Amino acid sequence: DAKKLVRSPSGLRMVPEHRAARSPFGLDEPPWVPDKECPRCMQCDTKFDFITRKHHCRRCGKCFCDKCCSKKVPLPRMCFVDPVRQCAECALVSQKETEFYDKQLKVLMNGATFFVTLGTSDKSELMVCRLSNNQRYLVLDGDSHYEIEIVQISTVQILTEGFTPGGGNTRAIGMILQYKVPGSEEVTQMKFTAGEDFSCNKKLSAAWLAAMHKATKLLYESRDQ
Prior knowledge:
Blueprint: E1 3-8, E2 11-16, E3 55-56, E4 63-64, E5 71-73, E6 84-86, H1 88-110, E7 112-118, E8 124-131, E9 137-141, E10 145-149, E11 153-161, E12 171-180, E13 187-193, H2 202-224
Antiparallel strand pairs: 1-2, 3-4, 5-6, 7-8, 7-13, 8-9, 9-10, 11-12, 12-13
Helix pairs in contact: 1-2
């Protein structure tokens, strides 16, 4: 998908030429709180004057003094080319998301192997599951081929094993995914299970499922914005 470089009051952004091609994990730039509505820092209540200047957080759009909004942090969810100024609270959130974009997104794109069961069928098919390079589709390849549009996914439930009433570590072994068929209200369910016969792939499958869990959280957040 073609992209273009645009300049906004917040900074330079590399965005898709067509809005329909944007990443489902992306966030829109927030409107800035107007200067006239912000005589004081919205964090420490310091009054703005000739010396104490006001700055807007690029993630939430609120108005802060330099002390409360001094960090410049990458914000890939809004397609910024360079790190941008953010308040302390938003900077912390953005820093946590950096791991997803630097590591987990690559895990999803590289893919993992699962036994996939469609609907209520008692038959499963061994398939390689991966996120498309444009982040818009979950691609499943085996004897069959499926492409599930990420924005059509309604629920994701990660399946685990190893939990005991007295505590203990759990391990992700699969997931149940529900999505809407485009053009209808019909909901389809797929179950993904890591194969027990592929011990060398268990770690990769668990990492892929953990990345999918994080991706789902970001997807829900972008919908709620």
